[in-house]
Amino acid sequence: MELPPCPNWFAPGGFCVDKQGRLAYASNARVVIITPKLQEWPDIHILPKCHEPKVVCCLWTSSEKGDLVTAGDDGKVKLWKSAENVVVSEHRAHGTNKVVAIGSFPRCPKYVITGDSLATLIVWNTENLVARKSILLKIKLPPLSCLACSPFDDYTVAIGFQQGTIIVVDTRERGSILWKVVKAHDDLVTNISWCPFEENILGTGQMFVSSSKMKFNVCSLSDKQEMTSFRPLFKKVKPGGSVAYATAHWFDKNLILASDHLSQLCVYELSKEIRHSFRVVHKLHSREIYNITSHTEPDGSKIIWSTSQDRRVIQFRLDMLKVNTTEPMLQETSVNVPLGDCLLDLQTLGGFVNAIKTCPTDATVVGVALGDGQIRSLSTMDSSGHGSPFWVKFKPFTLAWHPEKEGILAFGSENGKVGYLNTLKRSATFGFSLNLKGNVYCMQWVKWNPDGGAEKHYLWACGGNDIAVYDDDNLDESYTILELPKPLDASNGQTAETRGVCEFCWTDDYKVLATGNNQGFVSIYTISEDTLCNRGTIVAFRQHINSIAWLQYGESNEEGLWLAIASDNKVVKVFCIPSSIISDNVSSLPPSLQPHTVLQGHSEKVCCVAWSPHERGILATASVDSTVRVWNGFDGKELAVYSDPLFSRYFCLEWSHWEEDLIFAGGDKNYLASIRPSQHPPSAYVKPNGKAASDKAKGEKENIEVKKQTETAKEYVKQKNPTVLYPTLVSLENRKKEFQYEDCFALLRATTIGEKSEETSIMFYLFGEDFRVAINREAECSLKAGCTENYLLLSVWSDKPWDEMARALTAANQIDEFLFAVQKGDTPLWKNVVERHVAWLLQNDLFRKATIFWHLLGEKENALETLLAADLSRDAFVYAKLNFPENDERVKNTGRVYANTWMCNNRPELATKVYLSINDFDSALDMIRRKNDPLSSLLASEIAKFSSSKNMSDVYVVQCIHDALSRNDRKTADRAIELNPKFYWCKPVVDIYFFLCVEQKEMSQKETSAVDSQCAPMLPEQLLNECVNLFDGIKKDFMLKWHLKDCSEVTAEIQKTFCASVIPKQQEKMLIHLSGRLAASVLSSESVEDMLTDIKAVYTEYAPSSGDSLPLIFSELSMLSQ
Question: Global pTM?
Fold first, then answer.
């Protein structure tokens, strides 16, 4: 038994069946194929990663080259050989528009019609693989929602739109509109289905039924009119709620299958009367049905497939005799006589598989907890796939079957919620109060007598580092938070850290308990006289404990108890716990207990471990590395490795108690896998990189990471990942932001005043010989790393001579047939062959290789457009700089695209470098000014000097100094003044500010409040007098030293005068005001009287207690500078 992911909701084009009865449906980025078998579990085949991010449509076709067509959000349409998981061909005629509908003509199934959100129809011949655009509806219409192809020709298509409009078009040549039903429905057209016969009770000609949430319309294309309509059965909608979904499928001459709002599948019989009668086919679904399809068996029986929001896929054989003899209905009735037999009730999954547990009273029943709020009780031996879904209010994370009461299943969920349900009565209870502080990840029924009475079962649940114990007789109310005994010292001599419990496990006889915590410690407890006694602590790991499992030892356990432990580490450790801790109440763990076996093989953390109930010592482990492994827990030998084709991160597993060679596992791909270890030996395991694990002779090429951040651009990367086309450039782009800003300053000087720079990070953004030198270095790095294709690519782009490339490859002992394949020729035959090869490369997404041939043909613009269309903006920028003049508009446009890529990745400093390289100073200024930090403001001021906003340069300087002071960044403030001589008058203010607001603040923090109380605050008149005395004493010397750009002595004198003692905190802000005004007055050569007037005005306007003083200083300085 395996359960696939559920179909995409409300996707009418993503659910189809072929003539052989195989069902295909879209599920996220995958396509699931179901092949039913009589009285057996169906074959389930999954095509992984068909489209990104989601497959929207799929359709069976009769092409000789492939049998399945898929389309998705990425605008691609692919033809598959489904049995081999191989894409035969694809087209991108829709561009980047989302494909929302698909169809084919029954009379000529090789033609596949796809429609996108802009109502563009593409007709694709799956035999010769030619795609042509049929019609682009220029009239203004809402987005397309569905389409259906006529069964009577190979060109008529009906299209439905999101606002109820339906259009019938002729797809021959450029196409034409045959009929437009302006208001067929009042809302979204959910589905369109053509009548399979040209004649029915309503008349003759081509007819189709269209569905929406509120009604079904039957329209005649021949008469171009609406023939009749009928409505589905309604249910009461809560205030503010939305109307349920409805769909229809015309499968017989006068019979239409349709869903209603009561989750029923009905068959409507058309008549010439106003009201049409219907019969209920079945009520197997519990939620709204949104997809219906059918096919006819060789014996003439009708097979109906349907799916709904309850995530069930149902295959139903419709008994036409019952359809014709059952009394029709005109309104809802409680009578439910199924019109056939249910062949398959497949419980698909709509969320992560969080837990799997086998029922102890019935080994064929398995409970599954899903991340979408469902709990499934599944029968593994029922070929119809029968199971009971339960919807709970919260995400369940763990399950625990009652060991004696049949059908009772407890579950733990998010936010500390614990509940239980009766799977036999389909009832759930959510009466457990919020006892635990965190998500409940571990539960177990335990038989013990804590009060000394008769033994009975208690439910233990672990969450939020606590264990809650629930009484079996009163689960809804009675509970206690368990207090475990204090731990002993760790068995290996380390300090026992046992704060909180995240995992626990009892032995089968409920005599020994193991608990694990977040620090990787496992404590062992035993029951002595009805109380828990701590026997010691094992320091198993230093990471979070994920799973603990005791080996079921039965009656004989002389060799000890075996305990398997998994954590966030990649290994699993198996310990042998001495059996004496049970027989001897005073014994504890040995002082140096080491793991008996360490199981190594997983590449990511291990989430679950489980011992086999059939064979002693066999252990299964599940990991987020997409593998489930089976081991001999005693000697560490690896027995089986199962690699998931969907690359699921496995969270849980469970051995089947019914079959010996069967494991159930689940994870994050909404898929419950059935694994038979005997079919997956370790020698057959293939790692994700495609190399067999057993082929150790060949070895694996290590992926050498690019050297981390370099302090200077001159430090080149010695070892580079050969898959990276620009290893040095990538390493330089990964440096810290400060280095990127320094590159911007250097690049600005290089592009404006022609300053030469040998920095590699600058050469990448220059033109001419400097840039070619940098690219040649990248090519040499690729050659040394053995990546011949990257070397050839950069060499051809830069027009390096062929003989030079051949000598380089020969010296490096690199033989590459690709070099000889691209030898340039001049004959028309050579050009024709190259052009056809380019088309093949583009079809297979080999865009970089295609540019080599475009370049050899002299089609440089095509090469550039190819890179841009493939979103290879960095490659396009490099190619444009190598092959077009510096001032060419193509270079500038490509640079803007590349810069926009960095902007989308939230890297404005790199986008600024690109803008500076193409001399687009306005865009560079607009990019960098958005950042709110001193260095960005300083760079903006420098760029503004060369942009059209030169008058803004001074504004950015003032903003830079202001931000630098507010962030205590004196280095940037001094640099701003140094780069802008006109702002040297700010230097004293900067010095005074940092002395008073930084140094003095630190000093005041060290002093006690008693010292502050001894310093009497200075009066305003005293401050004014001090300012006057200071001004008269140092004015001349100050001016002289200022012109000599030496203000250190001035600053020292100011500090000495005003800060001889600890200044009371309430005077600091006023002192900054006065000092700043003093410095500004000196530089403006004002008289003493004017200065005093200004100072008095400042004091009058700003009181010492008036908030932050920094904006006040700069408001004054900005006014004076203007």
Answer: 0.61
Of the ranges 683-692, 699-708, 812-821, the best mean pLDDT one: 683-692
Number of separate helices (H) and strands (E) present in the chain: 27, 57
How does DSSP assign 876-945, residue by residue?
Answer: HHHHHHHHS-TT-HHHHHHHHHHHHHHHHTT-HHHHHHHHHHTT-HHHHHHHHTTS-SHHHHHHHHHHHT
Q: CA-CA distances (angstroms) from residue 942 to 157, 347, 747, 759, 975? A: 62, 65, 12, 20, 12
CB-facing half-sphere around the CA of 619: CA atoms within 13 A: 31
**CA 147, 151, 152, 155 torsion: positive or negative?**
positive
Residue with tokens 């169809």: 103
Sheet of 663-667, strands arranged across: 650-655, 663-667, 672-675
CB contact at 8 A, 988 and 973: no
Q: Tokens 């057959």 map to which residue?
A: 684
Classify residue 922 as left (phi > 0), alpha (psi -120 to 50) or beta: alpha
Tokens of 896: 């803007």
b vs e for 947-977, b when ≥16 Cβ sit within 10 Å of the residue's Cβ?
bebeebbbebbbbbbbbbbeeebeebbbbbb
The mean per-residue pLDDT over the stretch 15-21 comes to 92
Of 1106, 1045, 1051, 1099, the residue nearest 1077 (C-alpha): 1099
Tokens coding 328: 């029709």
- In eight-state DSSP terms, residue 840 is H
Element (H, E) at 111: strand 108-116
Q: How far apart are CA 929 and CA 959, in angstroms?
A: 11
pLDDT (tens digit per residue) in 152-171: 988 899 999 988 899 999 98
> Cα–Cα distance between 1080 and 1117 in angstroms, integer?
7
Q: Are 1026 and 1086 in contact (CB under 8 A)?
A: no
Which range has highest mean pLDDT (26-30, 382-386, 424-428)?
26-30
pLDDT recorded at residue 629: 95
Give me 781's structure tokens: 């790095």
Q: What is the pLDDT of residues 408-453, one digit of tens each?
A: 899 988 878 888 888 887 655 554 555 677 888 899 999 877 766 6
pLDDT above 90 as % of the chain: 20
Measured distance between the N- and C-terminal CA atoms of the chain, rounded to whole angstroms: 81
Taking only the tens place, the pLDDT of each residue in 45-104 is 999 889 988 999 999 998 888 889 999 998 999 999 998 888 988 888 888 889 999 999
Is 353 in contact with 374 (CB distance < 8 Å)?
no
Contact 305, 315 (CB under 8 A): yes
Mean pLDDT of 357-377: 89
Which is higher by pLDDT, 808 or 870? 870
Q: What is the DSSP letter of 951?
A: G
Beta bridge partners of 122: 114, 133
Q: Which residues in 1037-1107 belong to E strands, given as ranges?
A: none
Asked whether the predicted pLDDT for residue 503 surpasses 50, the reply is yes
Is-contact 335 376, C-beta < 8 A? no
CA distance 833 to 386: 58
Q: Under a CB-based contact definition with an 8 Å cutoff, are residues 743 and 733 in contact?
A: no
Looking at residue 997, the DSSP 8-state letter turns out to be I
